[in-house]
Sequence to fold (312 residues):
Amino acid sequence: MSMLLLVVPARWAPVWRAPLADIVPDLIVRVEGQDDYASGDVDYVLTFRPPHGLLTTLPNLKAVFSLGAGVDGILADPDYPRHVPLVRFVDRTLSREMAQYCVMQVLMHYRMQRVFDRAQSEHKWRQALLPKRAEDTRIGILGLGEIGTLTAERLRDLDFNVAGWSRTRREVRGVQSFAGEDELAAFLNRSDILICLLPLTPETRGILDAKLFAQLPEDAFVINVARGGHLVDDDLIAAIDSGHLSGATLDVFHTEPLPETHPFWSHPKITVTPHIAAISEPRVAAQYLADRIALFEQGEGLDNIVDPERGY
Ligand code: NDP
Ligand code: OXD
Fold:
């Protein structure tokens, strides 16, 4: 029998252990920090942010499975054993929830919902016309991968003028594709609402900075739903306070939970949500893992493997 080591914070261990026991009963599951195990017996690891140095102590490790779509927390380990395949979680439900969140935040901004929320709190009947038609509102999505593509399609179907930026050119019906560094400026210049859906890699860390914000149109709105490490926090606050940006919605942060004293909490033009745009469903992730381990043990290759050099 193969052994899986579950490497998650203690409070999450029961949430993940139960569906694994149910769906993959013939897999021996050990929880790092709670159960005894011999390091040489571990075949697979399921994790999101493992302690640095742990994975390299497992000499017979065959594959690492990520609990989430993003693998930056795993590749942050400088000792990550690069010969071991890292499989990320690619799931339609997760992508749908991400797209829902982005659509909701775009509509809240575009339909001026916060203006009406404030008016209600003052008992004011404040009618206002939409500043632009959806067709004239240009949305830019940084990262046109699994989640970025679905988000682009959903926003396109709501009549917005949508473009995406990726490393390689992408074909998505009705969505303009910009690719590579050379086309970043043109993409930003036409993005009234910018959504970050990039993986966090050495190339994308800190990409949401003063230089990037300066290339967005006046009054642009920023939604960061990817990773806190993409954003230079002080640059965002400065760009909003100077009046260049109209505001931002943030779901991800450098430190999570976001410290109580962080200025984002009380900024009137920033909306904070606690990394809930989408959360991997344990039963779905357990089935995903079970399917892949079964095929792998019959000699098939693994899919959704991350390129450790690229970082995604
Ligand atoms: P994918 O790997 O499918 O897509 C990544 C996209 O980013 C691709 O289009 C890729 O380009 C592009 N990209 C990567 N590096 C660069 C670069 N240097 N320059 C330009 N484009 C680049 O990822 P997913 O869509 O599945 O996930 C995206 C991210 O969303 C995750 O990494 C995670 O951080 C975040 N996430 C957040 C969640 C939340 O709850 N807040 C939940 C789930 C995910 P190309 O197409 O050319 O390869
Ligand atoms: C993910 C996440 O990457 O939840 O899946 O952030």
